Amino acid sequence: MPRIVSFLPAATEIAFAIGAGSDLVGRSHECDYPEEVKNLPVVSKPTLPIGEMSLEEIDRAVASQLASGESLYKVDEVLLRQLDPDIVLTQDLCQVCAPSGNELGRALRELPASPEVVWLTPRTLGEIRENIGQIGRVTGRMAGADDVIAEFLARTATVADAMRDVVPRRMVFLEWTEPPFCAGHWVPEMIAIAGGVDSLSQFGADSLRVTWEAITAASPEIIVVAPCGYGLQQSRTAAAGIPRLPGARIFAVDANAYFARPGPRVAEGIELLAHLFHPDRVAWPHAHRPWADVT
Predict the structure, then answer these.
(1) Domain of residue 222, residue span
(2) Into how many domains does the chain fold?
């Protein structure tokens, strides 16, 4: 079996979902799902004290760090050599999301043997499914990957069928709040399938900074607060601080679990949005409740 090190939470989730979780020997500091992954050694950590900073402070610090050419992550090169991976899972979509630049390249060059590096760069739901298949191929778990993809498609199709002839709910999805950033990459597709319309979102493209004036002009019926990298409790805190708009309900959601990480749980994220937009058409049968109404 291959020895796998994952620098990306979504890749870690995919590996476990397709049956390759037992092949993982190392993870990033953000890889926290499923629970058993927390037992693995951590090969990368942030260079900024993110947990001690506000959203506004994080935004300023990240911008300053990137402008200076400095990395946002530190790779434990000694540990990486000890783990001696055959496969490394990482990304080159976003410098903020995981190690992707010089720091990772240098660490990989120092390894005694060259592992197969799988670069994941999904911008759409289709590309998320392609990534699942890609990890299935390199790990020899293609049957498991096919099953995960089939379930993803089936759950998405069920929501789409439930949304036929529905009047879309006007909404704004915020991937950050201080300053506000709109939805990007695969999230606008999720919104559309779930029976919503977000005029500020960027289909298949990077999230952009927007103004509260633009958000107000969009006349949203619903605002979904999902700061990238945040769980439900942190999202609730962020949502509590945004301006209230007349007639708009504000929902905080678990961004990490269902929106920010391009993995299998994105399908459940579509179901979650559909339930928030159209609860009469899509029920929420699960015991967990990964959202909060903070209107």
Answers:
(1) 167-293
(2) 2
CA distance 43 to 40: 9
Q: Are residues 194 and 131 in the same domain?
A: no
Q: What string of pLDDT tens digits covers the 295 residues of the chain?
A: 899 999 999 999 999 999 999 999 999 999 999 999 999 999 998 877 666 777 887 777 777 766 666 667 788 999 999 999 999 999 875 554 445 556 677 777 778 788 999 999 999 999 999 999 999 999 999 999 999 999 999 999 999 999 999 999 999 999 999 999 999 999 999 999 999 999 999 999 999 999 999 999 999 999 999 999 899 999 999 999 999 999 999 999 999 999 999 999 999 999 999 999 999 999 999 999 999 999 9
Asked whether residue 141 falls in the same domain as residue 189, the answer is no
Alpha carbons 220 and 227: distance in angstroms, whole number: 18
Residue 157 lies in a domain: no
d(CA 125, CA 230): 21
**Do 140 and 191 fall within a single domain?**
no
Q: Are residues 208 and 87 in the same domain?
A: no
User: For strand 73-75 and strand 184-185, is the pairing parallel, antiparallel, or unpaired?
Assistant: unpaired
